Amino acid sequence: MCSADRRAACGAWPVGVRVPSPQETAAYFRELLEFETVEGGRETWHLLCAGEYGATAPSAAITLRPGDALEVSELTFEVGSPHELEDLHAYLAQAGQVVEPVGADNEAGPGIAVRDPCGVVVQCRLPGADLQTRLRPPALRPRRLGHVNLKMSEPGASARFFIDTLGLRLSDQVGDLLFFLRVSSEHHNLGLRGGAERVNVHHIGMEIHGWESFRSICDHIAACGRVVEYGPGRHGPGNNLFVYVVEPRSGLRLELYADMVHIHDELAYQPTRWETPSRYGRPAS
Ligand SMILES: [Fe+2]
After folding, report:
1. Distant-in-sequence, close-in-space partners of 95: CB < 8 Å, separation ≥ 6
2. Structure confidence by residue, pLDDT tens digits, 204-257
3. What pTM was computed for the model?
4. Domain spanning 4-125: which superfamily?
5. CA of 94 to the centre of ligand 1 (A)
């Protein structure tokens, strides 16, 4: 197991996904959820929001890269200092992981990348430069990236990788099909689910401002002539309120959520094994 100081923080930086038309997908979510969007060059677009609580500058929550079809490009975890990055690098190398360097760019500082057992590219990077962007006051726009939910063939093996090598903690699991992991006090920052031959993004969880926001957002979606995919409702694991929306061209699904459980007592908390798979035949948590 990693020691606490080897753990990374999650959510400050974007999750990268490939979609057929980053510009079109960005425009869709700009209209539907009032994301701020910026072009990042090479057909890449960023969806911005306020970021983690206490952040003084906005951050890119989702980076859309060009590709033939929806695909997860990379997960990025934050590493707080060069010393911690060095420590993590040494630990991963000693654990037999193939560690690749990652150069600084306009998304984050330098870092390293490894692959989980299902092939997911996992970056651990130092903070980058301030985006020098200020956001309009939020109306509908989600506040921050909260979690990424991936589908894959071997979620149990992947869960072990994130727990044993990067220090994530297991919050709950649904049988051996779905694992909820956290790097913060929030119930989950990463969901790993089985049932897919090829690894891909199932959904990206964006926190909204509270349960009152669901009405405004759903009204706006209806006014745009769109429909939600699923919800609103409340999940079992995480106990969060949710509604799902999908961008039709790429199939990229966002979960808008609020009111998720936080785990503050690490010593007392015991993960629950849920055994109600029939509840999760549709998008879960
Ligand atoms: Fe979720």
Report:
1. 164, 165
2. 999 999 999 999 999 999 999 999 999 999 999 999 999 999 999 999 999 999
3. 0.92
4. 2,3-Dihydroxybiphenyl 1,2-Dioxygenase, domain 1 (3.10.180.10)
5. 33
